[in-house]
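so my prof wants the structure for this chain in the tokens format not the other one, which i didnt know existed until like an hour ago. anyway here's the sequence
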Amino acid sequence: MSIIIGSKNKAIQLRNQGKSYNEINRILHIPKSTLSTWLKTIPFSVRIKDKNVQRSKAVWAKNIVEFNKRRSEKYQKDTKHLIKKFAENVPPISNQNLFFIGLALFWAEGGKREKWNVRFVNSDPQMIQATMRFFREVCGVSDEKFTLRIHLYPNIQEKVAKSYWLKITKLQEDQFRKSQVQISGSSKGKRPINRLPYGTLHINIGDAHLNKKIKGWLLGLGRQINNLMPG
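here's what i got, hopefully its the right format
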């Protein structure tokens, strides 16, 4: 009997400390049905209730964070798998395709207000590579006619950016003009530091005849698109 009384007193003491039935069961190895009988008249203090509520909230928050992390990891894995799958389904492109691809890229990102030169601006290395192929292979521009300028942001080292764009364009370092450091009015210095790690590259070709040729191509392309029959 004294053992039972001693166990009951320990259970009451633990309950007064804010322990749950599960916790007391793990400590004293007393069935929860017995604990319920012993402790049903012992109320929790407000402080202990608040403590348990906060503990439950912390556990809930941790579980939510872990759940969201697992869901995010699964989403990223599934997304990479789908992107890789779709990439493998792209049919081979021809030189004729390169004409239309390069022209479409220029239509979207080229300097269409220029009169005496040809200018293309972007920060996407794949778009820069595709456009350089368009200029070289379709437009017949020789390498010495290109000049480059980088628009940097405060987090970017100019030397690193130049080295990167040289690899992308396969041009020479002396073809760079003085870089510009700028913060766009829309970002106001809030742009994430990894959004444009190498800045924005400006490609310039001093060729008024090519300027007119590309504008003519765009005019012809636009007309053909507008005259396409539905379906």
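also thought this was worth mentioning. Residues 2-43 form one domain.
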